[in-house]
Amino acid sequence: MPIPFAALLCCLLFAPALRAQRKTELPEAETWLAKPGAQIFDGRPAEAYAQSHLPGATLLPASDSALRRLLAPVPKNTPLLVYGKNDKEGETCAKRLRRAGYRQAQYLDGGIAYWRRNGLPLEGPGGVGMTRAAFDSLLHANGVVLVDFYADWCGYCPPVSASAERLAREHAGALTVIRIDADLHPDLCAWFNVTHFPTLYLYQYGKRVWKQVGFLVHEAIAFKVRRALREEMPELPEEKIMVADPY
Questions:
Q1: Residue 54 sits in a domain of what CATH number?
Q2: How many structural domains are present in the chain?
Q3: Residues 98, 79 contacting (CB under 8 angstroms)
Q4: Residues 58 and 143 in one domain
């Protein structure tokens, strides 16, 4: 049976509004958290939740069976708020809750990254984030420091980060590696004029001695690090140096 034109027009007109209602803006979220019995969930991995999360947030289980057990005592008409690292992750989690029957589930606009950037409170050991003062103290308290600026959406970042972590293990006690998540610490990226990823900064006793923007093979990164550590290194063969444009 054909859909009446008037009904189709209503769907087209009101569908955007219905979609918009599934996202909660920051001021509304603060009010939500102040309500007794507020239901808020963290949709990020357990490791991220353990480091920092919104006050009173419950970790959203990864498995559907665990999610059903968690939500069993919660009435289906309860408004639920969920957040992720960003909008994409939050929206995915909200859809999952709606599929479980909680039609009023919404996600936090901007995710925890936006919450953190606005200086709002977080619970957990990593709640305060990395401040400029803390960053500077790390640079000056350690001899050789490799700073890895990365972003989860950057395709070249994982292999570069893996190289940094490998070097940290190989030179434990001599090399300090600091990883800076660009989404969680846009202020640090701005302070150090980091606009593309991955970006590596190498410091020697508080002074920057090397900068790399974009992908670089492990051997080339190791060469720079070991030279900063004053280890004897043969010249790197030309064919080993491979660079890719940054994101």
A1: 3.40.250.10
A2: 2
A3: no
A4: no
In this structure, the answer to whether residues 164 and 202 fall within a common structural domain is: yes
The CATH number of residue 169's host domain is 3.40.30.10
The pLDDT of residue 183: 80
Mean pLDDT to the nearest integer, 112-127: 76
* Residues 20-64 pLDDT 10s: 447 778 777 777 777 666 789 999 887 677 677 888 888 898 888
Phi-psi label, residue 111: left if phi above 0, alpha if psi -120 to 50, beta otherwise: left
8 has pLDDT over 50: no
Token pair in block for residue 131: 């401040």
Residue 126 belongs to a domain: no
Count of residues for the chain? 247
Q: What is the pLDDT of residue 129?
A: 54
**34 and 109 housed in the same domain:** yes
Catalytic residues: 154, 157
Whole-prediction pTM: 0.50
Task: Give the structural domain span for 93.
Answer: 23-118
Long-range contacts of 223-231 (CB under 8 A, 24+ apart): 225/144, 225/146, 225/167, 225/171, 225/175, 226/171, 228/144, 228/202, 228/204, 229/144, 229/171, 229/174, 229/175
